[in-house]
Each structure stands twice: as C-alpha cells, then as structure tokens.
Amino acid sequence: MAALLLPGASPANAYSPGTATAKRPAYNVDGTEHFSCSFAGWRSGTRVNWTCELYSPLDGTVYTRRTGYWNAPPSSHTTSTFKWTTNLGEGAFCTRAHGLSVDGGDTDVTC
Questions:
Q1: 90: three-class secondary structure by DSSP
Q2: What pTM, to 2 d.p., does this model score?
Q3: Which of 20, 27, 53, 99 is paired with 105 by a 20 to 30 Å CA distance?
C-alpha cells in the first residue's frame, strides 16, 4: 500500500522534531556558571545539530555558545556540563538550547 502524501507535505516535514531542554544555569563557589542542555525524541536516521548557550536575559549578550551534532539513533543526547567564568556584576544568566534536523527544530530557555 502506498503512503498518502498531502499537498504541501514532503517526507521530511511529515515528522515532528524532537525537543530541546535547557538546564537552569547554576553558580558554583569557584566563580563559574555551570550549564547544560539535553535533546530527546529525535527521529532515527536524522542528523541533529544542537546549540547550547549561556546568555544574558537583560541585553541578549551571548557569553558562550557550544555546538555539535549527532546522528540519531540514539534519539536523545545530553551535553557535557559546560563552565563559564563570571565577572562580578555580569548579572543574570540564562541557558538556551536549540536542536535542528530535517524535521524542524525546537528551542528552550530557562533562567
């Protein structure tokens, strides 16, 4: 039986992307912010590009950005815990996670 393809649909966008989850940054007594991201539910057979960044919610400054990719399976990936040395007065920090594959993308932010 042949698959039915709706007008405007293509095999690539017939699937939903997985999810990106940003972990709340945590200040460590050594003067560093620790942050990480995780990604889950990505379709097997796809390359998933990810970005995990620490930024300021006050002015949008990106302090550090880590990027990478993996080929699903597995359908999930968790980054290492990254560290950023902070300077006194830099203010608030947020983590932003973004995942992107041929099926689309997902972004999550937590502060």
A1: coil
A2: 0.83
A3: 27
Kindly report, residue by residue over 53-103, the tens digit of the pLDDT. Answer: 999 999 999 999 999 999 989 999 999 999 999 876 677 899 999 999 999
What are 33-57's pLDDT values in tens digits?
999 999 999 999 999 999 999 999 9
Residue with tokens 């991201």: 37
Give the side-chain half-sphere CA count within 13 A for 104. 12
| Nearest CA-CA partner of 77 in 64, 85, 90, 67 | 67
CB 48 within 8 A of CB 105: no
The residue to which tokens 């003067």 are assigned: 31
Upstream peptide bond of 73 is cis (omega within 30 degrees of 0): yes
